[in-house]
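User: Show me a protein chain along with its predicted structure.
Assistant: Here is one chain, sequence first, then structure tokens.
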Amino acid sequence: MQSPLTVEGEARGTWYFEASFPVRLLDADGNEIAAAPAQAESNWMTTDFVPFRVTLTFSATPGTTGTLVLQKDNPSGDPAKTQSVRIPVKF
């Protein structure tokens, strides 16, 4: 995997707030090396799956590992409503 990385997929509309949700890329030590909002590509005000797209620009040593983190947007700040999906990656 190399920079820039474009991530495309689908997330439930409940993951979005104002048509976006946070995406972070972490290195092997858990340090954030990139972050950007994933943008809904259609009507996000639904409980159905909604396509999204985000591009992350980063610097990482080839052959190392990290984690792509997709976070449910949580404007309330309530820890009970925090959800995420963590995907291991290799640079």
